[in-house]
Specification:
homodimer; alpha+beta; Arc Repressor Mutant, subunit A; three-stranded antiparallel sheet; 7 helices; 3 strands; elongated; Metalloregulator ArsR/SmtB family transcription factor (chains A, B)
Amino acid sequence: MPKYSDGLDRMFHALGDASRRAMVERLARGPASVSELARPFDMALPSVVQHLGVLEAAGIVVSTKVGRVRTYQLATDALTPAAEWISRQRLPAERRLDRLGAFLDTPTDKETT
Amino acid sequence: MPKYSDGLDRMFHALGDASRRAMVERLARGPASVSELARPFDMALPSVVQHLGVLEAAGIVVSTKVGRVRTYQLATDALTPAAEWISRQRLPAERRLDRLGAFLDTPTDKETT
């Protein structure tokens, strides 16, 4: 069993919740405070903080506190372990086509969604 | 909320367990029966079947029954929704470097692990 198993358990578990994924989507656009993160959700602040705690324990987000404001941002290479694990499971031929496709793809359309 | 949310919930949840990921790793090398999948695990057959049920409900594996033997295999593009979601969260610059790296990378070393 590879030693990053627990890390992958935590990471995939953290991503298995639509609210947490929406927070990651928001943070992919830039850092945000807890109240900024809470705004689009019909959710009490403690619940938001709890979700952020799950994401932080999984190594997906990091937080810094300046004065009374805690700001969250995506960790460097936050989702790389999950992406690499998935990539290793794909059939070799499929994987090579993906790489070529991804490389040739112009990201403009996808980045505006 | 995008309509594939529930699907992503199920998919990431299914991947958040080391035993289920090990089954996916096995099936990435080719189809297998339940007993073949059970062999490397110190696990009762019903538990193996239960894990496979979670993977099947998430659309990651499909099964076919011939006579009394049920064979499992990875679904076509099994992990693509998860891979695409992850890819969309990465910072644009990081993502472009990844693509270049993945395209230039020779897969030989990684595929033997």
